[in-house]
Amino acid sequence: MNPVVLVVNSGSSSIKYQLLEPETGTVAASGLVERIGEDDGAVAHRAGDRTVEHRGPIADHKAGLRLVFDMFTETGQDLADVGVRAVGHRVVHGGEVFYEPTLITDDVVAAISALSTLAPLHNPANVTGIESTRELLPGVPQVAVFDTAFFHGLPEAAKTYAIDAELAAAHGIRKYGFHGTSHEYVAGQVARLLDRDPSHIDQIIFHLGNGASASAIRAGHPIDTTMGLTPLEGLVMGTRGGDLDPGILLHLMRTADLDVDGVDRLLNRDSGIKGLSGVNDFRELRRLIDADNASARLAYAVYIHRLRRYLGAYLIALGRVDAITFTAGVGENSPDVRADALADLELFDITVDPALNTAKSRAPRHISPPDARIPVLVVPTNEELAIARSALQVVDSAG
Ligand code: AMP
What we know:
Blueprint: E1 4-10, E2 15-20, E3 27-34, E4 42-47, E5 50-55, H1 61-74, E6 84-91, E7 102-103, H2 106-114, H3 123-136, E8 142-146, H4 156-159, H5 165-170, H6 180-194, E9 202-208, E10 212-218, E11 221-225, H7 246-255, H8 260-268, H9 272-277, H10 282-290, H11 294-318, E12 323-327, H12 328-333, H13 335-341, H14 354-358, E13 365-366, E14 376-378, H15 383-397
Parallel strand pairs: 1-6, 6-8, 9-12, 12-14
Antiparallel strand pairs: 1-2, 2-3, 3-4, 4-5, 7-8, 9-10, 10-11, 13-14
Helix pairs in contact: 1-3, 10-11
Bound molecules: adenosine monophosphate.
Adenosine monophosphate binds at residues 209-210, 238, 281-283, 328-330, 333-334.
EC number: 2.7.2.1
Cofactor: Mg(2+); Mn(2+)
Catalytic activity: acetate + ATP = acetyl phosphate + ADP
């Protein structure tokens, strides 16, 4: 029997999880706990072709996980009996401390918790998920896989912010980068699709989901990425605006009476596509654009403008490129975004084939013409599988 790994991704009010076989990628069960801490909590658990649902208040992460464990039992997969080899936890911020998948101990939990100042929305939720799972599945090794890890070795020039160096050093200010598990996984899939050694490829990856980031990868190692100290920098996202003049914040704090919490809300929830158009989901944005809504059209134009800015920057940073790849919810499903991001770049040997771009497929695929010098690709990401594989590797090598 192939080993199974439980992957847990705890957000501030949600938990996404999967039980899967890292060796084959087969998913035995998956689900989502939503609105933890609110009266209208919900769990949807899918095992094979069965879906079990729960509605009602969910007090905290532990209560949510307990419900999930009950649902596993209800669908015939009692987690205490199915031989879970490891639990892999997605942890957002590893700071300077963690840059490899790490076996979780009390000290590791404390260190992840201490990094909460760098990721106040994410790391506390990750810690709660870890602590609850450790209690509910005692004896099963748990592994933390960090979203920042892939970008740990960014070159000095790319990771350094040009501010007072002593202040920066004292407060851990540097570009860390996020979505690393996805960028690393997709980079590997690109090498497979092109049938080339990853260490011989230079590539640009656009991870475009609710959060969005791009990376420039030379010979398997990232040399730049758009997200920074926090996941706020870079591309325009669902509810985050990405790059902006920091002076805007000073101005708003002085003139619009915004305090730290107000700025936090503005940057994390009320900006990006949502701030400009009122909706954060790309499918809704598309419907508004089709209805000729001017705010939605502008939001889309700003989104594409930013993508192209980073495409240009990363082409120059790399000097040459063997593949440009789109992944995640928007990147995998929106042919318009892909076509508009790469429009009118024939001079740079970058073209998208309209038929290939709009063809329906869930497989890793080319969307550039067959004779294109620079392949343009769509590669579905699978962070859960990557986390499960890392967790299994750590547990196996720990003996
Ligand atoms: P992710 O964070 O990778 O799960 O991506 C979520 C985002 O993907 C959603 O907010 C949607 O905007 C977008 N998305 C999902 N499906 C589609 C689709 N069929 N067309 C366009 N955008 C989509």
